[in-house]
Amino acid sequence: MAVMTEYEFRVLNFPRDASRSDVRQVIADHAEYGHWELARSRLYLGGARRVWLRRRIIRVRRTA
């Protein structure tokens, strides 16, 4: 029986004046303290940046 991994996602939007180091620090904080991982990063034409973070949803099964 194959088990599909389920993820929850969080989307972060950064304005065009946010520096790369600031964006990197925010992503690192989410990864370290919230157990998020980088799923996708997109840089738009105007300079705005959107980042998708994901983490696994762990379902607890009843054993008794």
From TrEMBL:
This is Uncharacterized protein. It comes from Flexivirga endophytica.
